[in-house]
Amino acid sequence: MTNIIARIKEEKPLVHHITNYVTTNESANVTLYWGGLPVMAHFKEEVAAMVESAAALVLNIGVLDDEQVEAMIRAGKKANQLEIPVILDPVGAGATDIRTDVAKELMSELDLAVIKGNQGEITVLSGGKAEMSGVESIGEYSKIEQDALNLAQQQDVVVVVSGAEDIVTDGQEVKRINRGHPLMGQVVGTGCMLSSTLGVFCGVEKDYLAASIAAVTAYGIAGEKASQEAERPASYKIALQDNISMVNDDDLIDL
Amino acid sequence: MTNIIARIKEEKPLVHHITNYVTTNESANVTLYWGGLPVMAHFKEEVAAMVESAAALVLNIGVLDDEQVEAMIRAGKKANQLEIPVILDPVGAGATDIRTDVAKELMSELDLAVIKGNQGEITVLSGGKAEMSGVESIGEYSKIEQDALNLAQQQDVVVVVSGAEDIVTDGQEVKRINRGHPLMGQVVGTGCMLSSTLGVFCGVEKDYLAASIAAVTAYGIAGEKASQEAERPASYKIALQDNISMVNDDDLIDL
Amino acid sequence: MTNIIARIKEEKPLVHHITNYVTTNESANVTLYWGGLPVMAHFKEEVAAMVESAAALVLNIGVLDDEQVEAMIRAGKKANQLEIPVILDPVGAGATDIRTDVAKELMSELDLAVIKGNQGEITVLSGGKAEMSGVESIGEYSKIEQDALNLAQQQDVVVVVSGAEDIVTDGQEVKRINRGHPLMGQVVGTGCMLSSTLGVFCGVEKDYLAASIAAVTAYGIAGEKASQEAERPASYKIALQDNISMVNDDDLIDL
């Protein structure tokens, strides 16, 4: 994993997103800034054809829609058939029953590579109860590591829990990552940008646990560097994106 | 009202938006920067469940859609039942008949807390004629104060007219507010961001007239501060959003 | 053409967009920064009414949708009837069959003023074969000038090919434009912003070849100026947009 960012810049993995319209511009730009190529396509008649040329598929349920679930399943099944990794961001699972149900349907229909959520989302999907305020996780989750392990084992998937401390697990190994900066929590879409980052990294590295650890770490490093340039949230978002384009393999040398 | 911003930061009101995809990222970020929590959800099967946990509901018809009106009515009726304030931004009323009709349908079906529009939109909804260029109000509105008063009385609602000078009225009291900066008119979405701001402020203060006056003033102050940092529009938008996160109750001491 | 930017700022052309939700905010802001007024409206019941007051119509298929094609055809036919110029951005033609088909359907149903695409898109629409990665053109296109000429002649339209060197042709005259900066290729949406720019310029100048040459040049100049202010992509995007608001007719004196 000493050269994963170089490989991204070399291979330019195409990351097909089916995602929400709140943060789709950020997701696309972040994909590009890492060195990948983004494509956002959700029309159900098109998604299977589009995913054929992709290196990864990111499914984000941030704004549910009538047609979206079917498009996600079609794209996901094609990705599974072609062994293209599928990353699920179950935004707001636990906030409404329908979001929880949709996330579970996607988990049941598709063979996922990575599930990335906040503490509330991961807890709900592992079978626990969570406290959500809209799509934000609130409350305390003392069993979050166990919940993440359970979900990873149940689904045979890498689970990434985003929070002040991030957790990455494949159901066996557990890695806690203390990178990033509190300002990341004060900008809309930093969770979605992390999902895109996971798509880019898994698009070049088939060891999804290693790819996810590298992705979470690299993203956190960009967040730290940005905090040296900006203290207020809108400027910070720009600085975060700028720094994403600057992280390199030397920054990941300790992994 | 001497502590409304402190209350926002303490209570973190969840503001449910059903809004357009042009400025939804700005609306979400501005909600967060004031201290609220944004949630954008427009799927008609979900909106009633989502609004249950909200402190305010913002309906913005900036990009009309097949399904949107029904989702807005479902969410609005649930909000009315739970006494959650509903803010309407009738973007482009007067520009096409269908927008005028949709705005009137929402006014007729729902019990609104605040209607926020530009001079053309408010004039049209009060029963007058307006000149619009797309969703922009053009032309002169010499009777705008009377129109705002009429609309507020007809609908038993707080009316906010945005413009070089903003007007806030509950149909009895009229407040004219001379804050803000001309650069706010040179950035797409400053009207939508004001609607989100009204959602945040009304989410913690049940006196919607006072909350709206505070919201319009605070937003204008952020606009003024931003003008000291940036002179060109894209930079100005970042500075405006940054300054929104910095306005505090001391800035509102004269209200 | 020595005063086209002054005319834009004087006439404030309303540019109606039916476009994707990835870059719609950028498209709207760029329209405003040049001096036009943007309106984004895609509801099929509304588009014909909205286009009536427009000076130009921009159709961008960046994110295909069930309802979008019908809305584009309705708006386009009304625009044709009123002699309002229609600009087509066939995003991703060649990437999936459905995108190629939709682009061809729009070319066949509508009388277009300008088609703007990358090398792969223009090659495909002229009848050749292209290599696309998602919506990005990859590969070499040695016959691109001939393909652009062919497409312009077949469709009786101005063709703009964006790339390191831009090509503008009406099927007779060919203009190669070496402006802009490589950083423009590292930001999502610079192609969409160029389409909006073409909408603004064609909204005030009925000689669409001259208007397109001015638009491409002016946009490239903004890109060059921005590169003196920012080296990283997210900052560069802000600088690009800022500089769009600053380009004036003196910058175009050599045209």
From TrEMBL, chains A, B, C:
GO terms for molecular function: ATP binding; hydroxyethylthiazole kinase activity; magnesium ion binding. The keyword Iron-sulfur does not apply. Signal peptide: none annotated. It comes from the Bacteria. Pathway: Cofactor biosynthesis; thiamine diphosphate biosynthesis; 4-methyl-5-(2-phosphoethyl)-thiazole from 5-(2-hydroxyethyl)-4-methylthiazole: step 1/1. Transmembrane segments: none annotated. It catalyses: 5-(2-hydroxyethyl)-4-methylthiazole + ATP = 4-methyl-5-(2-phosphooxyethyl)-thiazole + ADP + H(+). GO terms for biological process: thiamine biosynthetic process; thiamine diphosphate biosynthetic process. Pfam families: HK. Substrate binds at M40, G189. Gene3D superfamilies: 3.40.1190.20. ATP binds at K116, S162. Its EC number is 2.7.1.50. Catalyzes the phosphorylation of the hydroxyl group of 4-methyl-5-beta-hydroxyethylthiazole (THZ). Belongs to the Thz kinase family. NCBIfam families: PRK09355.1 (NF006830), thiM (TIGR00694). This is Hydroxyethylthiazole kinase. It comes from Halanaerobacter jeridensis.
